[in-house]
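Could you help me review a protein record that somebody else here produced? What it holds is a sequence and that sequence's fold in token form. I have pasted the whole thing underneath without changing anything:
=====
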Amino acid sequence: MNVKGQLEVLQDVIHVYEGLVGENEIRGILSRKRLHYFQAEIVFKNGKGRWGLIEVKHQERFEPPPFEGHGLPRWQLEARMGFYKDTGVVPYLIIVEKPTGIIYSKDMITLSTLDKSKFFDTNGTKPRRIFKLSVFDVLKKGKE
């Protein structure tokens, strides 16, 4: 990459950083006012005119025990399902798996109603809900 290209990339990084600084300021204000919020990665409108919300995770596969899977913090699942109940906007979980590049997807309505044999909750300070790989749809088969 030439110097001009490197400068353009640096300017893009600076703009992203400035946006993050502003977002952090607003999150602080909301927190001090004790307002419930979450930050959606992507909000989209499908071909049928319905809105959706996407939570994106770029993560390695969870390894057994008890099974291979992917997941997210439980509070995120609960917050997005609360948003769905209030608005009718369907939340989706999309996983970009490291290092394979496989992309998994599933709507959180389905994920939140699965039989307990298809998920488990981790414990600790940041509990996560992990779902079996078999519950996800594969959007992209990964690096070839």
